[in-house]
Amino acid sequence: MTADVAIVGYGRTPYSRAKPGERVYTVDEYLAWAADLALQKAGMSKNDFDGQGLGVAHAEAAHTVNWSASVAETLGISPQILIRADQGGASASAMLIRAAALIKAGVIDRALILGADTPLSIPSAAPGLPLSPERTRGPYWDFQGPFGLMGATAQFALIQTRYQHQFDVKPEQLGKIAVTTRYHATLNPQALFRKPITLQEYLDSRVLSDPIRLLDCVPIVNGGLAYIVTSAKTARTLTDKPIYLKGFGETNNYYHGSRTAPDVTTTGFAKSGPAAIAMAGITHKHIDVFEPYDDYPFIVMMTLEDWGFAKKGEGGRFVAERNMNFDGDFPLSTDGGQLSGGQPGGAIGGFAPLIEAVTQLRGEAGDRQVKNATIAASCGFGGIPYGRPGRSCIALIFGTEA
Amino acid sequence: MLVNTTTNKPLPEITDQTRPFWTAAKEGKLLLQKCTRCGTAQFHPKPWCVECGCRDIPWVEAKPSGTVYTYTISRAVAMNLAGWQGELPVLMCLIDLDDGARLYGQVVQCKPEDIAIGMRVEVVFEDISADAAIPKFRPASP
Q1: What is the pLDDT of residues A222-241, one digit of tens each?
Q2: What is the pTM of this model?
Q3: Is A197 a member of any domain?
Q4: Tens digits of per-residue pLDDT, B91-101?
Q5: Given an 8 Å threshold on Cβ–Cβ distance, is A143 in contact with B100?
Q6: Which residue from A300, A291, A299, A277 is spatially nearest to A377, judged by alpha carbons?
Q7: Total structural domains in chain A?
Q8: Burial profile B33-45: b = 16 or more Cβ within 10 angstroms, e = fewer
Q9: Which chain A residue's Cα is nearest to B86?
């Protein structure tokens, strides 16, 4: 797969917290807005995708069953191939892998990949919460909600408690991740929370579900993102800065151990991270920028371990020892991540790390630009299985050279 | 989502697949699906054995005891209904049952500072509707 395809454009709409008085955009409007930004960046038109590929991530605000086909109609695009991912925060990454395979097979030459959601504006099953009707039906919900489980924060807190039982990670180490993403957000005009925080403020923030604090939690927003992937040949006709997909790895429904009593302290990145690195023909030290799926700092730390940057149990120490600022020795979440940048719902947030990796490699990251970055890695992490972390763990490696 | 409007807590949608679990819970029994081919006990309910794919997975009564695999102390209601407010902090655990499955379960009759990985617990049932009860857990009697 190495360098057969490249990303030639991307777009990210402004995010909204849907505060009273704000213009509330629909999911359709965000899709068109994100697509427009990506098309402008690539110098392309929507009509360039007639007969080609269109990818659409499932959204909680999806208002029909056949969502990707409906979006094609909404946008007036007549693709040959529809790609749809319903892998939550891994959807953006998954669709790149699907599009790359279709392009390599010669079925299509290019694909426009879209995701948008308005989790703050959908009808909620519980007043005041982004709890969509689709999250509250079926046996997955029936054996969690009625049992008193408090959503993703409680689910990941359970994993973190177990991790802390088996290994050592200090609150200060996780706090360093939160403080770093906030620092990067101060350098990114598109980030949601741009006021710096201190480690002490992190440590003092209210515990929501031990050991997870308020400043461990990702803020939900409405918004849309998009990117365009083409064959390497076409990419070179469109831009002098194509960003090549160098490697990928994907796991879905990974169990570390048995299916009924797995060890929850290792995620599917333990397979997909090394697989992506091997496919790219690089080693860890070649990665100039790392864009994890940062819904919680603890997940970032586990991701770093499972990719192999640190041994299991030493992720906290790795975080403490490295400088994760954009101009440090391990630039991480350089756009402010989702923690400070905002998460357009569990279904769409995964576009952000991918797009920031591309932004950095194109040298378009402004005040947060990592100097001379040529290799970047990004993560998709989607869905929370019953009693475990991360249904889908996708690792991507991008490069500036074919 | 079905809601118990008296308690303002969510209720399960009971299907023919899951009814034996809820009915047994009302009678004070904890049921798991057990695979007749490979012996795997699993939770929550699945349409076949997740280890071997066998669809012959009758409900069997499980020993009502287990061990805390991990825990969290939920101090705020999130992604759930406000009725849980009255039970905060909720000691939510993953429990490894002695008979082999792992499930989410609230530990009650326990102070937050006493909850610990490895704690032995036993099932107590709480009625949540006319048709269903849920298993909760309490520290095992010595």
Answers
A1: 999 999 999 999 999 999 99
A2: 0.97
A3: yes
A4: 999 999 999 99
A5: no
A6: A291
A7: 2
A8: bbbeeeebbbbbb
A9: A148
